[in-house]
Design brief:
Elements lengths: L4 E4 L9 H14 L6 H5 L6 H11 L7 H16 L10 H10 L4 E4 L4 H7 L2 H4 L4 E3 L12 H10 L6 E5 L2 H10 L2 E5 L13 E3 L9 H7 L1
Parallel strand pairs: 1-2, 1-4, 2-3, 4-5, 5-6
């Protein structure tokens, strides 16, 4: 198949930010009396933020819990930390994205993050490299539902099966595959064996441009 576009997850795929998100969740939950473990979060990466808060609270026996307040606190803590440092892109990201744009290949960010945070923490020049940006504000059902990647493909004017989805999390892989896209998973934040539902698993973003599906896209 001749692919025509790429749908990129953001956190853990394009930018090294998962540790910062985890620390922000821990701080937010701590304000409400829960000492969250890192493993509680990493397995939920890709869920909408409200669903992350709800799931973790339930794990700690908190069924009647102010999830919206926890999400608000988490975003505040993340933005406070982001204000102190520039985003860290994975090696190869700053070179590959302009190449895709120069070749007029449609690309989109497909993330569970809220648009306000995306706009405040990433530069306008970086965001302009993408044809579309789909955030958690743009769909009802988050990953592993197909909705995020279906929205991404629709925003590019493409059928999802004509898109390569690039992910780093098991729930994101499930979302991409259920949408019908070819999925390349990068084991940047979880072990490769947790990403085996993807069509292809690679160790780093830098390997992406050399994969067979991307070579087809660029040809």
């Amino acid at each position: 198949m001749k692919f025509q576009g790429i749908l990129f997850d953001l956190d853990g795929t394009l930018i090294r930010s998962m540790e910062d998100h985890c620390e922000a969740w821990q701080a937010a939950f701590r304000d409400f009396g829960i000492e969250m473990r890192p493993d509680d979060y990493y397995s939920l990466e890709g869920l909408k933020l409200i669903n992350v808060a709800e799931t973790i609270a339930r794990q700690y026996g908190k069924n009647d819990f102010p999830q919206n307040e926890v999400v608000k606190k988490k975003e505040e803590y993340y933005l406070q930390n982001a204000a102190r440092k520039a985003p860290e892109f994975y090696p190869g990201v700053r070179e590959f994205l302009p190449e895709l744009q120069a070749r007029k290949i449609p690309t989109a960010i497909v993330t569970a993050g809220v648009r306000k945070r995306i706009v405040e923490t990433l530069s306008e020049d970086f965001l302009k490299l993408f044809s579309a940006i789909i955030t958690g504000d743009d769909y009802e059902s988050g990953k592993p539902s197909p909705d995020p990647f279906l929205k991404g493909a629709e925003a590019l004017g493409l059928l999802p099966e004509l898109c390569i989805a690039v992910e780093n999390a098991p729930l994101g892989v499930k979302s991409a595959k259920s949408a019908g896209s070819y999925c390349v998973a990068i084991s940047s934040t979880v072990k490769p064996e947790l990403l085996q539902e993807a069509d292809l698993v690679i160790a780093s973003f830098g390997e992406l441009s050399g994969t067979e599906p991307v070579r087809r896209l660029l040809s």
